[in-house]
């Protein structure tokens, strides 16, 4: 009878190595699936905490600035939050008022466009009869009536979604207050979960990731603001209805890299087409392309390079995965999460975490971002 040792020796070393890698990769895959399953079933908790973390990255520098100048920490948090709510409330009020003001004119323009399209269908090359057009309209109305039950259930699900949004917003607010007030103490407590041998390394990784997140949020905010101002100004000059609400949508959409600005820009083209015709739609499309080129070739290298440099494939795959897991919110949070992990993991696996953290800070200060393939000897020495 052959011994187990001789049986192992009869197996090719390559096969043994592949088998060793295979079971380890399976364990890692199972752990990843378990984490994604937990996240997907706890989205009502995970998403508000993630949004609160992003808002903390945006507001924490202002709170720290007031704290360093002698203001009470709680007072600084309250002042920054109230100022943010006042600014946001003022902008939303202005946008809604402009939407209400411009909606009647847009309705008139759309009605005129529909009448022109109907005339073209009758008198144009298609030479359709008015009876055929009226029959198509009646069929659409009948389809809506036949699906009234589904529409009603959709409205009920929308009401339930609104309830979840209100609950999530309150959770974001409470989490944001505690993160701004004592986020560093919370992180110090979380570090105690890890073994003492790696506790300091985990702390360095968390700080590096959060520092990268702060840079990413600032840069994205600036890029989105420039996109909104450029496109909104162009729409206003052309007299496109709802120019300000469309610019606001462009601002919000720019927080989802690659796809957000494209989708909201397409909506602006549709409004221009309905309101002003084909020529103005083409001009609007050219305006959006010009602003996107400005962002891609000037703003992104100068501003976003200071925060983080992520490969476009990682951005696309992250947005797709986030969208599958949590819809629009998942797509919004995907790239910031990648930016955080990009810096945190690099510090976590570095031979000298403190040196790696200093290296990333030097790259951020230099304006290049923590690029993946930058060799250590390219980092400028600190004075």
Radius of gyration: 27 Å
Residues in β-strands, percent: under 5%
**What structural category arises from helix and sheet content?**
mainly alpha
Q: How many structurally independent domains? A: 2
**Strand count:** 0
Helix share bin: over 70%
H-E string: HHHHHHHHHHHH
The stretches of 5 or more residues where confidence is low (pLDDT under 50) are 367-383
Task: Please summarize the sheet with the most strands.
Answer: none
Total number of helices: 12
Q: What separation lies between the terminal Cα atoms?
A: 71 Å
Specify the oligomeric state.
Answer: single chain
Keywords: Cell membrane, Membrane, Transmembrane, Transmembrane helix, Transport
Organism: Mycolicibacterium confluentis
Membrane topology: Multi-pass membrane protein
Region (Disordered): 358-383
At a glance:
It is built from twelve helices and no strands. It has 383 residues and is an all-alpha fold. It has two domains: 151 residues, no CATH class; 173 residues.
Describe this structure in words.
The chain is mainly α and 383 residues long. The protein folds into 2 domains: 43-193, no CATH class; 200-372. Helices cover 84% and strands 0% of the residues. It is built from 12 helices and no strands. The longest helix has 51 residues, at 73-123. The chain is globular and about 80 Å long.
């Amino acid at each position: 009878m052959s011994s187990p040792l001789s049986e192992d020796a009869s197996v090719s070393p390559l096969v043994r190595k592949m088998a060793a890698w295979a079971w380890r990769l399976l364990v890692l895959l199972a752990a990843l699936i378990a984490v994604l399953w937990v996240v997907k079933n706890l989205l009502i908790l995970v998403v508000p905490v993630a949004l609160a973390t992003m808002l903390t990255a945006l507001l924490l520098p202002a709170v720290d600035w007031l704290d360093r100048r002698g203001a009470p920490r709680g007072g600084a948090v309250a002042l920054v939050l109230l100022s943010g709510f006042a600014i946001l409330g003022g902008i939303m009020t202005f946008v809604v008022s402009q939407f209400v003001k411009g909606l009647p004119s847009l309705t008139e323009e759309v009605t005129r466009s529909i009448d022109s399209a109907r005339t073209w269908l009758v008198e144009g090359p298609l030479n359709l009869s008015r009876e055929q057009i009226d029959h198509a309209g009646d069929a659409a109305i009948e389809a809506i009536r036949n699906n009234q039950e589904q529409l009603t259930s959709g409205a009920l699900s929308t009401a339930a979604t609104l309830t979840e949004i209100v609950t999530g917003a309150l959770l974001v607010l409470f989490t944001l207050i505690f993160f701004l007030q004592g986020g560093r103490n919370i992180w110090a407590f979380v570090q105690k979960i890890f073994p003492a041998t790696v506790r300091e390394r985990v702390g360095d990784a968390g700080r590096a990731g959060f520092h990268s997140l702060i840079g990413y949020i600032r840069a994205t905010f600036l890029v989105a603001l420039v996109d909104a101002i450029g496109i909104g100004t162009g729409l206003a000059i052309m007299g496109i209805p709802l120019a300000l609400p469309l610019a606001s949508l462009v601002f919000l959409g720019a927080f989802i890299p690659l796809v957000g600005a494209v989708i909201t820009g397409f909506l602006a083209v549709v409004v221009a087409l309905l309101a002003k015709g084909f020529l103005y739609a083409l001009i609007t499309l050219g305006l959006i392309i010009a602003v996107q080129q400005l962002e891609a070739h000037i703003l992104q290298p100068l501003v976003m390079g200071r925060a983080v440099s992520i490969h476009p494939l990682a951005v696309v795959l992250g947005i797709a995965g986030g969208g599958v897991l949590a819809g629009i919110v998942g797509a919004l949070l995907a790239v910031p999460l990648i930016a955080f992990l990009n810096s945190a993991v690099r510090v976590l696996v570095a031979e000298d975490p403190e040196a790696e953290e200093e290296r990333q800070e030097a790259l951020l200060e230099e304006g290049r971002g923590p690029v993946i393939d930058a060799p250590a000897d390219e980092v400028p020495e600190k004075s």
